[in-house]
Specification:
Elements: E1 25-29, E2 37-39, H1 45-50, E3 52-56, E4 65-72, E5 75-86
Parallel strand pairs: 1-5
Antiparallel strand pairs: 1-2, 3-4, 4-5
Length: about 90
């Protein structure tokens, strides 16, 4: 049985939560959040184009560090790619 991808922001030790109908997501690729989904429902086009710094317990800066994810120029509607960790 294939498990649905975990949605970013859900408890890592809780039951996996998958995408919900009617919501918009981007897949996170690479880095500490690889394979998770970020919900972008209600985000502006500008916010989606810029990407986000996402808090992660697995950052190079330790728990609470951030991982930078953003779309690529060639696939602005595609997955968000890990750009590196930031404090």
């Amino acid at each position: 049985m294939t498990q649905a991808p975990r949605v970013y922001g859900t408890e890592h030790d809780g039951p996996a939560t998958g995408p919900q109908s009617g919501h918009t997501y981007r897949e996170l690729t690479g880095g500490p959040l690889d394979g998770q989904l970020i919900e972008v429902t209600g985000w502006t086009d500008e916010q989606i184009t810029i990407g986000a710094y996402l808090i992660t317990p697995h950052s190079a800066y330790g728990p609470g560090g951030r991982a930078s994810y953003a779309p690529t120029i060639s696939r602005p509607d595609g997955p968000w790619v890990w750009e590196g960790d930031v404090p």
